[in-house]
From TrEMBL:
GO terms for biological process: carbohydrate metabolic process; pentose-phosphate shunt. Belongs to the glucosamine/galactosamine-6-phosphate isomerase family. 6-phosphogluconolactonase subfamily. It comes from Prunus avium (Cherry). NCBIfam families: pgl (TIGR01198). CDD domains: 6PGL. It catalyses: 6-phospho-D-glucono-1,5-lactone + H2O = 6-phospho-D-gluconate + H(+). Pathway: Carbohydrate degradation; pentose phosphate pathway. InterPro entries: 6-phosphogluconolactonase_DevB (IPR005900), 6PGL (IPR039104), Glc/Gal-6P_isomerase (IPR006148), NagB/RpiA_transferase-like (IPR037171). Its EC number is 3.1.1.31. This is Probable 6-phosphogluconolactonase. SUPFAM superfamilies: NagB/RpiA/CoA transferase-like (SSF100950). PANTHER family: 6-PHOSPHOGLUCONOLACTONASE, 6-PHOSPHOGLUCONOLACTONASE 3, CHLOROPLASTIC.
Amino acid sequence: MASSITKRDHVDSNYKLALDGFLCKVPIPPGQVYGINDALSAEAAADDYETCLKHLVQRNVIATSKTTGFPKFDLMLLGMGPDGHLASLFPGHPLVNEKNKWVTCIKDSPKPPPERITFTFPVINSAAYNAMVVTGEGKASAVCTALGNSQHSETLPAQLLSAEDELTWFLDKSAASNL
């Protein structure tokens, strides 16, 4: 089965966005940037990336959380969609509840592409620091719900975000307009 994972050089690629917007501007050796293998199927790419992370943890390149046993990244920079999703963890999707895997794939994403690779909440929430950056009026309602100022009945993935040391939300005026 061919994968519809976004290729690294595609305009919608998070890898390309991070590389062009940040990583190419700082002195990080390319050998220390670990991208998803976009030549594999979504399932195989998730397994491959989890294996890569486990090797990095074994070599003490990435620390392990003493609390959770999952990898403990120093910082994760995250964004949120208008529906309250983060990473590729979407409202109402079973992957939100994944407790064992470090990396997984979604094959029925409500947002293109349909197949995506994502960290799971145990990995995301084991980070020392998580920074949620949200911009735009189209996300104001989800921001209001996620930060506890709404009577929304469904729990949004963004509401499940935490960090071992500190979680900080960065909002522009439009995203914060319903608070």
